[in-house]
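User: Can you help me understand a structure? I only have the sequence.
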Amino acid sequence: LKGYLIGRVHPSCHEHNDEIANLGEGPKLIKYVFQPHWYTPNDIPHEQFPKEVADEDISQMERADIGIVALPIGVDCGSEIGWFAGKGKPVVAIIHDWSDPVTNRHAPSRKAQWESLQRHWMVKTFLTKVIIVGDELTVDKADPILFDKVIYIPEDYNVYDQLDELVDDWKVIKPWYPRHPNV
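Assistant: Let's start by predicting it. Here is the structure, written out as tokens:
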């Protein structure tokens, strides 16, 4: 199976996107996670992107079996999340602070990632699950949309195993939202 990373393409987000995508790849089920920032031009403004950039994204989304979200997201990410949900494909946000002060590597904090998600009520509706790596955040139970979608996994647990299980389960159940008969 293939994954598609849904994350901001700005150069300042590339390292975070790579880390989140790497959590989703593994030996069993999801062999590859496509990352749009690998080929998206970062030397021109978004409004000047050639149509081929969008065409490639859509082509990769069609080939993907799961959307993996790196927070925080932008408007285009919200569109991709809605597209995955509309196609009946699972979409999972992964909240993980992989910062390492020794090597001077810094990720957005888990709380900042969570708070960025809170602002997008339709995105939250379309998410299948939110995987939070590490200690429990106390804010999740207050969210009326996400409260039953959150999974906590310990820092030393392999996120891939959780995704593997989720995609395996997804193959035998229908999407949680009703589909229009003409879609």
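Now, to help you interpret it: The beta strands are 2-6, 32-34, 66-70, 91-95, 129-133, 150-153. The chain is about 35% helix and 15% strand. Let me know which part you'd like to focus on.
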